[in-house]
Structure formats: C-alpha cells, structure tokens
Amino acid sequence: MRKLLNEELTRLTNDEFKKSDKTPLVIVLDNVRSLNNIGSVFRSADAYLIEKIYLCGITAQPPHKDIRKTALGATETIEWQYVEDTLELVHNLNSEGYLTCAIEQAENSKSLHNFIPAKNQKVAIILGNEVKGVQQEVVNACKETIELEQYGTKHSLNISVCAGIVMYDLFHKLYSSS
C-alpha cells in the first residue's frame, strides 16, 4: 500500500473552505490556557468544517506564534470570535436555537456514544479549562452535558484530544442524521 502524496489529497483552498457548507457545530473554549491546545482545536475544526470557534475568558486569540504552531494555518480558515463572558455566550446560543452541550464529567451526563442530535440541530459544545473544566455556572446553563467514557486511572483527556474526538463523532452524527 502506497502512502498518498500531499499533491494527491483533495484539499480545499482557503477561499473554497470559507464558501463551503459548514457542519452546524460551534466550539466554545471556556478559559483554555494552553496556546497549543487552542491551535490544535483550530486544526481539528478545519478538518471537520466546523462553523465557528468562540474563545472566552482567558483563552488566547490569534495571531500568536504558539497557536499558529499547532493550528498550521487553520486560524485563517475557521471563523472565530472572542467573547469575554462564557455564560452570557451560552445564554445567547441557547436563544439562537443551539443545543448547548458542556463536555464534562457530571451527574446525569450523557455518554457521547449515546448522544444523538436531532436532524438539522445546531450544536454548540463547550470545553473547559485544563485544570478546572467548564465553569459550574456554564454547565448549569447548558441544555446537555456530554461525557467521554474513560476506563483508565486518569479520568481526563487533553482538551485538544477531547475536542477532536467530539468533533469527529458529531460531524458523522450530524451528517448521517440529515
């Protein structure tokens, strides 16, 4: 089996990406402190045609060399916006018809495997700080809490790894339910 060359991969140009239909999914980063995590989330968002990323609280914003290092140009394709108050943003997304989902270990959370969004549902996932997670008041404001089941000793994933898993899963669920 031969590995494909970069020239053989079907890739959109930045302009084609910006004009393409997007996955009805937005990502909210709630006080994410690692610039590398932020860049990695941008890169995964590009891979799955994510509608938009919201950067909230202490979450750094492009342009920054450490974000750029892991984003590999995705800050030029993904629409993003800084919003200081995550809670206010979640309330706004709720009123705009998004199904807001905190990605968090919580009472009565739903397993990602069992979470099936409705056809044509706009979804917003909220990912939290590397140490403290999603703020409790933000979890309370979300319509759902989704948990990635884990079986080892750590009970946590790196935020960019978690984001990538959730984006991949929801990309396929949102398109297969259409």
UniProtKB/TrEMBL annotation:
UniProt-listed CDD domains: SpoU-like
Keywords linked to the UniProt accession: Methyltransferase, Transferase
Pfam families the record matches: SpoU_methylase
Annotated SUPFAM superfamilies: alpha/beta knot
Record's GO cellular component terms: cytosol
One Gene Ontology term of the molecular function aspect: RNA binding
Signal peptide: none
Keyword Methyltransferase in annotation: yes
Alphabetical GO biological process terms: methylation; RNA processing
Membrane-spanning residues: none
Claim: Transferase is one of the keywords in the record: yes
Gene3D superfamilies documented for this protein: 3.40.1280.10
Ranges of residues in domain tRNA/rRNA methyltransferase SpoU type: 25-168
Record InterPro entries: Alpha/beta_knot_MTases (IPR029028), rRNA_MeTrfase_TrmH (IPR004441), SpoU_MeTrfase (IPR001537), tRNA_m1G_MTases_N (IPR029026)
Superkingdom of origin: Bacteria
PANTHER family in UniProt: 23S RRNA (GUANOSINE-2'-O-)-METHYLTRANSFERASE RLMB (PTHR46429:SF1)
Name by which UniProt lists this protein: RNA methyltransferase
Lineage of origin: Bacteria, Pseudomonadati, Bacteroidota, Flavobacteriia, Flavobacteriales
